[in-house]
Design brief:
Strand order of the largest sheet: 3-2-1-4-5-6-7
Distance between the termini: 27 Å
CATH superfamily: NAD(P)-binding Rossmann-like Domain
Largest sheet: 7 strands, parallel
Helix content: 40-55%
CATH class: Alpha Beta
Structural class: alpha/beta
Shape: globular
């Protein structure tokens, strides 16, 4: 499938200060999109947004804690105030917790993972769909889940539970709003070389983790983002309710 352009489309991205979100922002700006960017890291977010503005892209950026519903709603409002509408919502913000056995996982671990990784996506879906309906329907939502949302994830019980919730929310929203022309999908990456992996608790385990993939390597962020761009493209108009694995073949086992 050839993606012609995102020219003129208004795209909201959470978690846009680094990783998939930052790369998506750059790719979409180059394809003509107008961007509403949010992240808890306001300084990092501005480092992404400023060069895009300087290059002539339409960008609104504001601090957004996705675990706070009002912050997510405010980012949708900002997108519409600046650009008049919202065409694509990409709920990308997430956290990767330290690895620990299930029996060592505390209630606080569950609360944090569900607050950011599940509730943050729920708030995005809710307010993005409300805006799309107010526009008369039509639109695309993409949620960033994980391979941990499709199967077991040893030493990541709280994370896996929250990412399974993301897949469930994706499928539910897709069924509820398909008749309004709103497509909702999820992308489920295996470990990819974003700062969440390279600088996190699992950073020293990259070689070990790569052995779990038939390709014997971790993913490049660009490989995941290429799939995300495909899933959100207007040309991909009949795909909804799917959790698409980008995993180097892990799910084929």
């Amino acid at each position: 499938m050839k993606i012609d352009s995102y020219s003129g489309q208004v795209v909201m991205i959470t978690g846009a200060a680094s990783g998939f979100g930052a790369l998506l922002a750059r790719e979409l700006a180059a394809m003509g999109a107008k961007l509403a960017l949010g992240d808890l890291n306001a300084e990092g977010l501005e480092r992404v947004a400023a060069p895009l503005r300087d290059a002539g892209a339409g960008v609104v950026a504001q601090r957004c804690d996705v675990s706070v519903e009002a912050d997510v709603a405010s980012l949708v409002v900002a997108a519409v105030a600046q650009f008049g509408r919202l065409d694509v919502g990409i709920n990308n913000a997430g956290i990767a917790p330290p690895m620990k056995a299930l029996i060592d996982t505390e209630e606080a671990d569950l609360d944090l993972n569900f607050a950011v990784n599940a509730k943050g996506v729920f708030f995005g879906i809710k307010h993005q769909i409300r805006q799309m309906l107010a526009q008369g329907g039509g639109g695309v939502i993409l949620n960033v889940a994980s391979m941990a949302g499709l199967g077991g994830a040893p030493k990541l019980a709280a994370y896996a539970a929250a990412k399974h919730a993301v897949v469930g929310l994706t499928k539910t929203a897709a069924v509820e709003y398909a008749r309004h022309g709103i497509r909702v999908n999820a992308v489920c990456p295996f470990y990819a070389l974003t700062p969440m992996v390279t600088e996190g608790d699992i950073g020293g385990k990259q070689d070990f983790l790569a052995q779990g993939s038939p390709m014997k390597r971790l993913g490049q962020p660009e490989e995941v983002v290429a799939t995300m761009l495909m899933l959100c493209a207007k040309e991909n108009s009949y795909l909804t309710g799917q959790a698409v694995a980008v995993d180097g073949g892990v799910s084929a086992f």
